[in-house]
Design brief:
Strand content: under 5%
Helix content: over 70%
Largest sheet: none
């Protein structure tokens, strides 16, 4: 619940862009997968019984599936978000046609790369 509350707090506010929201959601999805793996190996930070660890793993897997379902639209836009978050490492040919030339100009500007 703590990680869900942290995500909720990060997604609130007016000064957050969609690609930043996606990074927070994606980070939580990776944490859920990690926690689920810990449950499968009974490697939680606190000692738990195997039966309890298996129960946690089922719940974590269900939560991960629900996140995948609810944030499918974000996953479909991931390549476009990468252009915003990492314009200097984005493959130009994967960008939309109407911004490819501008992206090439941006990637060719060493002063901007250095500042980024």
């Amino acid at each position: 619940m703590e990680k869900l509350n942290e995500l909720n707090a990060k997604l609130q506010g007016n000064d957050i862009f969609a690609h930043e929201m996606y990074l927070h959601v994606k980070s939580l999805q990776m944490k859920l997968s990690f926690f689920s793996g810990q449950g499968g190996n009974n490697r939680f930070c606190h000692n738990t019984s195997s039966k309890l660890a298996a129960k946690y793993k089922v719940q974590l897997n269900s939560l991960a599936v629900e996140f995948d379902r609810r944030f499918q639209d974000f996953q479909n836009l991931e390549s476009q978000f990468n252009i915003l978050s990492s314009p200097f490492t984005t493959e130009v040919y994967s960008a939309p046609d109407d911004i490819q030339l501008e992206l090439l100009d941006l990637q060719g500007n060493n002063d901007l790369k250095e500042n980024f």
